[in-house]
Amino acid sequence: MIRTRFAPSPTGFLHIGGARTALFNWLFAKKHSGQFVLRIEDTDQERSQESYARMLYEDMEWLELDTDENPAKGGSYGPYTQSHRMDIYSRYLQILKDKEAIYPCFCSPKQLREDRHFQLEQGLPPRYSGRCRCLSEKEIQEKILSGEKPCWRFAVPEKGVFILDDLVHGKIEYNYEEIGDFIVQRSDGWPTYLLSAALDDALMEISHVIRGDEHLINSVLQTLIQEALDLPSPRYGHVPMIVGMDRQKLSKRTGAQSVREYRERGFLPESLRAYLSTLSWTPENPLNLLSKDELIEEFSLSRIATSSPVHDEAHLEFWQKKAMAHRGTSWLFDELCHLAPDKETFFREKDRKPLFLLLEDISGACLTPSDVLKSLKWFFSPSALSVPIPEWIPEVVRVLENINDTWESEIINKTLRTYQKEKGLKGREFYHPLRLLLTGEEQGPALPLEMAALGKTETLLRLARR
Ligand code: GLU
Mutation test of ligand 1: which of 45, 60, 193 has the most ligand atoms closer than 8 Å to its C-beta? Predict the structure, then answer.
C-alpha cells in the first residue's frame, strides 16, 4: 500500500512551498490508490500554535487535498499530532540508549561555537566535534550529579558512505566523515524533529516521502535512526526548492506566498493547484487546465525537474484566468450576488442574456470576481457629469426609444451607427458624450453591450440626465 504524508509544523501559514509538497504527496497517493496522511509536527513548542494548525487544515480543505488520516479524523496509526506521541518517542529513545546508538552530550553553546569557529578556520566543514562521544560512564554520572542536563546525539558511523537512492535525483553519496553526530533529544527532554519524524514515518508505515531538497540530508539522518531501530524506511523523493523572481529563497519581500493570502485575494483552488503542480513538474500538455482527476492520472515523479522553479505570479494569474473562464458566467453571476448582497436585486432584475454577455466581456480582463465587481461600478450608478451635453442627445434617446425589437447589443449598435452616420458625427464626438452620460467613465466595454445589459429603461433614464 502506498502511503504518503504531509507533515507541516504549525509555526505559520501554509505557504507555496508547503502547499506544493502537500499536493505532490496527495497526487502520488491518489495516483496509486494509496492513502494520504496529515501529521502535525509540533515538537517545537515555542513556535507551534494551535491556531496555525487549524488554518493549515482549512487551507488544505480549500485546496481540496483530502486526507485519509489526520488529527481530527484519527486513523489506525494515531495520534497524528506529535505532541500527543511523547510516550512513543520516549520508548524508542530508551531503546536507542540501551543499544548505545545515542550518547549524552554536555557541550555548552559556547563550546559548540568555539569548535565551529575552529573548524571553519581550518577549512573544515562545521559539524559536531564528537567531544562527548567518548565520555566514560563515570564522567557522565559526575556531570549529571552536578546538575548538568545533556542532550542526546546519534553516533553516526565514523567511516564509509551512505547512498541515498532518491526518487527524483537518483543515487547520492554521503560521506559519513562529513556528517556530525546529530541531536535526537534536546536537554529539556523533547525529541528533535529528526527523531520524531523518522519514528513517525516508520511507525505510520509511510511508504514514500516527497519533500523539499532542503531535507536531503535529513533523509540520510532519519534513515540512520530507522536502521538503528530495525524499523522500515520510506523511499524519499526531493523536489527542488522554489525560488523567487530574484532566484533567491522565497521571502516575504518577493510577494505573497501563503495559500491564505491568494485565497483571500480571490484565487480559485483549481488555479492554485494547477500552478503548484507546474512548479517542478510538467504535464503532457502544459497549457491545459487539468481537473483533479486528470492531474492524478498524469502525475508522475519521473517528470519532476531537478532545477529550481521560479515563483512567478504571472503564471498563477494565467491559470486563474483559465479557471475563471472554465467556471463560466453563471458561476460568476452567483459570486457577484454573493459578494455584493446589496446589489443582488439590481442584478436579478436585469435580463440575463445581455447581462451575461457583458460579464463575459469584462471577466476576460479580470482576475477575480471582486475585480469584476470593481469594474462594474458604473453599472450600479453612473458617476456625476462634468461636461456639457451635446444638443443631439435627446434625439438619440428618441431613436433608441423607438427600438421595437429585442433590446440587445447588435440592434442597439446598428441603431447608433445609423444615427451617427446620418448626423455626420465622428466616432469619439458621438460615443464619448454618450459613454459619459451612461456610465460617467472615460472608458469601458463597448457601449451597446453596456446599454443592453443595463436594460432599455435604465439606459434611457441615464441618457436623459443632466
Ligand atoms: N515538519 C517539517 C517541516 O515542516 C516536515 C519536514 C518533512 O516533510 O519531513 O519542515
Answer: 193
